């Protein structure tokens, strides 16, 4: 009778269905995690030797065996799903190279549980740094074009109705600012999750005199998780990261929706090069916004992955479980890959979209989005309350619309007619003042309060945003350098232990 390849407790070989549907899929990402698993093993070997928990010659053989495997690459390991997962397959190959007695000593003072928890944190750490880099690149593109288009006036919308004139550069500045918060969320999670679970063993620690601080140091962690149960039972950093990606995707979908509307024939405010569009199989005139539709559609998928992960973890015990720590995390890796693709596509959109400047400013002058400026003028010049001014301008807009006139054709006479009707007397506003507040370019430049679209407000805002972005870029580079330095120390310690 065949027995389990990983346990003498189990007297039967693993069922083919279990191998095919559970264990084999686990091995598909073996190559991606191979170096991380090797690093975990190297840190553990160095620590065991330093603590005197294995003999020096055994540690030397193990260190050399792991380094040899690293040099040979993941392809050297024959993957057998009946060994359940990557760790047992890795260990089986190592034992083939160094022998059962020596190879079996690698597992002293640890468990597959804390290994898996450590691998998840190492892998997540790398993913978050990559996403932060992509966000920084996307934000830089937004800021670069915000400066280029800082004076391109266009209608701004609320409820998808003309509201107040803004500039396209001002819109891009807002996009960058929102993406900055996404970046901060990922950075905060990255900093808080950089704690080592290694040494927690199954979930209740180990009687061996291990040095968890040493393995944490060798793997570039800031420290180790104090409670062993929490160390192996929690994947909240995965759910936290996934929730951040969900928020990020919801935001880029809103941006894509703006461009989707603005690029329609009816709006024609934005155009894209043909290289980021598609056509129809039957309608030869079509130029379809494929990238925008992809960005919007993928948001639903990423939000769904968050819900799936949350529900998977919800019903699990607070300990190590397959559904909590494996099924509950798998959606994150998929979502992260989706976000990589979508951030590159979002950067493409922000880089290649071109405003139809002449049409945009004309629309802003005709669509009554300057009306608030006229109300503000009345408050300043006639010393009326804003609510009274609001009523007068609303009546003037109605009068112009009924007469088929665009907004910039409203004049002092029309305002006085409405004022007499509302207040019983004329306002006698300066004609030049009325013309200026109804001119979309002048209207925008008048909005110079902090955070406004006027160039005098926007330009300093862009400078501050670029300064913050550069600091974040440098911080992520420093972070990478720190992890690289830790890896180099780990490699040196392992080679020294191997006698190389």
From TrEMBL:
**Pathway listed:** Amino-acid biosynthesis; L-arginine biosynthesis; L-arginine from L-ornithine and carbamoyl phosphate: step 3/3
Q: Please give the chief subcellular localization of this protein.
A: cytoplasm
Question: What Pfam families would the database entry show?
Answer: ASL_C2, Lyase_1
Annotated Fumarate lyase N-terminal domain ranges read: 49-304
Which terms does the record give in the GO molecular function aspect?
argininosuccinate lyase activity
Which key words tag this protein in UniProt? Amino-acid biosynthesis, Arginine biosynthesis, Cytoplasm, Lyase
Q: Which family, according to the similarity comment?
A: In the N-terminal section; belongs to the lyase 1 family. Argininosuccinate lyase subfamily. Belongs to the lyase 1 family. Argininosuccinate lyase subfamily.
Supply the name of the protein: Argininosuccinate lyase
Query: What species is given as this protein's source?
Result: Pseudomonas lutea
């Amino acid at each position: 009778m065949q027995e389990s390849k990983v346990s003498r407790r189990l007297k039967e070989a693993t069922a083919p269905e279990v191998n095919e549907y559970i264990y084999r899929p686990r091995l598909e990402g073996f190559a991606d995690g191979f170096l991380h698993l090797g690093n975990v093993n190297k840190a553990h070997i160095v620590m065991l030797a330093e603590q005197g928990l294995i003999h020096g010659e055994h540690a030397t053989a193990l260190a050399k065996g792991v380094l040899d495997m690293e040099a040979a690459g993941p392809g050297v390991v024959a993957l057998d799903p009946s060994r359940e997962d990557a760790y047992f397959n890795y260990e089986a190959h190592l034992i083939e190279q160094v022998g059962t007695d020596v190879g079996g000593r690698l597992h002293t003072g640890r468990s597959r549980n804390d290994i898996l928890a450590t691998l998840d944190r190492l892998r997540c750490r790398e993913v978050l740094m990559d996403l932060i880099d992509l966000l920084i690149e996307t934000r830089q593109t937004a800021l670069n074009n915000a400066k280029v288009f800082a004076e391109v006036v266009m209608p701004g919308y609320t409820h998808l109705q003309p509201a107040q004139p803004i500039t396209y550069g001002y819109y891009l500045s807002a996009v960058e600012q929102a993406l900055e918060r996404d970046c901060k969320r990922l950075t905060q999670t990255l900093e808080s999750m950089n704690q080592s679970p290694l040494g927690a063993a199954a979930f209740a620690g180990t009687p061996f005199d291990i040095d968890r601080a040493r393995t944490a140091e060798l793997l570039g962690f800031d420290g180790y998780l104090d409670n062993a149960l929490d160390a192996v039972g929690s994947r909240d950093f995965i759910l936290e990261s996934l929730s951040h990606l969900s928020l990020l995707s919801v935001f880029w979908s809103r941006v894509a929706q703006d461009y989707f509307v603005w690029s329609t024939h009816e709006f024609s405010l934005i155009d894209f090069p043909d290289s980021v569009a598609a056509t129809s199989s039957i309608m030869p005139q079509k130029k379809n916004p494929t990238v925008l539709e992809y960005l919007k559609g993928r948001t639903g998928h990423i939000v769904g992955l968050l819900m799936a992960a949350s529900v998977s973890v919800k019903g699990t015990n607070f300990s190590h479980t397959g559904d909590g720590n494996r099924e509950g995390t798998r959606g994150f890796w998929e979502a992260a890959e989706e976000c990589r693709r979508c951030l590159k596509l979002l950067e493409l959109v922000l880089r290649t979209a071109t405003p139809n400047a002449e049409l945009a400013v004309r629309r802003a002058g005709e669509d009554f989005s300057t009306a608030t400026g006229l109300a503000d003028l009345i408050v300043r010049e006639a010393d009326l309350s804003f609510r009274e001014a609001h009523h007068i301008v609303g009546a003037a807009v109605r009068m112009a619309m009924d007469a088929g006139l665009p907004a910039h054709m409203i004049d002092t006479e029309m305002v006085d007619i409405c004022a007499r009707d509302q207040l019983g007397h004329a306002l006698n506003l300066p004609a030049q003042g009325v013309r200026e507040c109804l001119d979309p370019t002048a209207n925008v430049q008048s909005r110079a309060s902090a955070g406004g679209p006027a160039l005098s407000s926007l330009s300093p805002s862009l400078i501050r945003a670029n300064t913050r972005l550069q600091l974040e870029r440098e911080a992520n580079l420093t972070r990478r350098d720190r992890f690289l330095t830790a890896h180099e120390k780990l490699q040196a310690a392992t080679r020294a232990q191997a006698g190389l």
